[in-house]
Design brief:
Layout: H1 3-8, H2 11-34, H3 36-41, H4 43-68, E1 72-77, E2 89-94, H5 101-111, E3 119-123, H6 132-138, E4 142-144, H7 148-160, E5 170-173, H8 182-194, H9 208-218, H10 225-229, E6 235-245, H11 253-257, E7 263-272, H12 280-304, E8 310-312, H13 319-345, H14 348-370, H15 380-383
Parallel strand pairs: 1-7, 2-5, 2-6, 3-4, 3-5
Antiparallel strand pairs: 1-8, 6-7
Helix pairs in contact: 2-4, 2-6, 2-13, 2-14, 4-5, 4-6, 4-13, 7-9, 9-12
């Protein structure tokens, strides 16, 4: 182990990174709250400001993946589609298998300049989580309760609000609804058998209702005055994205924090949105077929160690690193002054208070990391799948 790798594995380095992320994140959240009056004056300006503020938070995690751990991301795609990435709105369909697949999705967004405006369909509880959840609230993320009778209307209404969004965005969608585990896969395949659907080896059955509502509300079939003013309002394509890691690695967020390097392979197909059927039953059948194809891509990867398509170079951009260095300077300088004062004063009370703060930062970050761990994922796919898979 080299000296640099040794330093990356040390708890003190982790504590510093956690401190920078938590404190800068709370500062950004506070600035976002200050933008509330601006929404009444100019919604589009407020949106643009919040896109940049969201980037300040999300890009720190991307920097940890790309610059701290040195994880490499290889993109397999059609070279003819590549020039369109980042220049149009898209629904990105991702497989939900790894603890850091969301981070790889963000890295994909970062390399094409849409990280700050990227969207997801998230469970409502996340809206109350400091930093990420609050950031998402101001970014107009679509939250749901995972109760379809209640979600259908609210999700559709929130998606409609994105029709006049002022900048290009990608809507990241995990159609499986929950992260893949062997137990959830077993339950999901029992549902497939009961509904006479082809079984999948590497995925859970996709939940078609959420996909259908998302596509229909972002399709842009109706033309409004706002859409005429903002051409960004129409979603142009589906980016079918399939992720895997070389050497059968199972990456974790803790591994990234320890500076462990992984190599991700991502296969992306651009599918024009008009090719997705507008009828709900036909759209559901289309999505099931898409996941059968995704399963085939994963099988090819398992056998050949690569996805189909050409390898396209997507170099990492320096902005995530610059952003992290900026916030490090902003929040670490006063911390350094405080530590110097504590050491010079010799007060046991102030030193004890500093220890408590450091412990709180450590526990807070560990709790946030724990939310990504597979063995702590929700039971949503186990309990809900037999009753409401579609």
């Amino acid at each position: 182990m080299g000296l640099l790798q040794f330093l990356k594995s040390q708890f003190l380095c982790h504590l510093i990174m956690c401190y920078v992320f938590l404190v800068s994140g709370l500062i950004v959240n506070l600035i976002q709250i200050c933008t509330l009056p601006l929404w009444l004056v100019s919604k589009q300006l407020a949106r643009k400001i919040n896109i940049r503020l969201a980037y300040c938070i999300a890009s720190q995690m991307v920097a940890a993946l790309e610059w701290w751990s040195g994880t490499e991301c290889t993109l397999y795609t059609d070279p003819k589609s590549y020039p369109l990435y980042g220049k149009e709105n898209a629904i990105v369909v991702l497989n939900h298998t790894f603890e850091i697949d969301f981070l790889c999705g963000w890295t994909f967004c970062e390399r094409f300049g849409v990280l700050g405006s990227s969207k997801v369909l998230a469970k409502r509880e996340l809206a109350y989580v400091p930093i990420i959840g609050w950031m998402w609230y101001f970014l107009e993320i679509v939250f749901c309760k995972r109760k379809w009778e209640e979600d259908r209307t609210t999700v559709a209404q929130n998606l409609q609000k994105l029709r006049d969004y002022p900048e290009n965005y990608w809507f990241l969608l995990y159609c499986e609804g929950t992260r893949f585990t062997p137990k959830k896969h077993q339950v999901s395949m029992q549902v497939a058998e009961s509904k006479s659907l082809p079984k999948l080896k590497y995925h859970l059955l996709p939940r078609t209702k959420g996909f259908y509502v998302t596509v229909q509300n972002l399709r842009g079939t109706e033309t409004s005055i706002l859409q005429a003013l903002f051409e960004c309002g129409k979603t142009a394509a589906i980016y079918d994205s399939t992720l895997n890691f070389r050497n059968n690695e199972v990456p974790t967020l803790l591994g990234i924090l320890n500076g462990k390097k992984y190599h991700a392979d991502l296969y992306v197909r651009r599918i024009p949105l008009e090719s997705v059927p507008e009828d709900e039953a036909e759209c559901a059948a289309w999505l099931h077929k898409l996941y059968q194809e995704k399963d085939g891509f994963q099988e090819q990867y398992a056998q050949m160690g690569r996805f189909p398509g050409s390898i396209v170079s997507t170099p990492r951009r320096p902005w995530s690193l610059i952003n992290w260095l900026f916030w490090s300077c902003v929040v670490l300088y006063p911390l350094g002054l405080l530590i110097a004062q504590l050491l010079s004063s010799g007060s046991m009370l102030t030193i004890a208070a500093a220890v408590v703060v450091c412990s709180a930062v450590s526990m807070g970050m560990r709790w946030m990391i724990g939310q990504t761990e597979i063995d702590k994922s929700s039971n949503y796919g186990i309990k809900a799948a037999p009753l409401n898979n579609n």
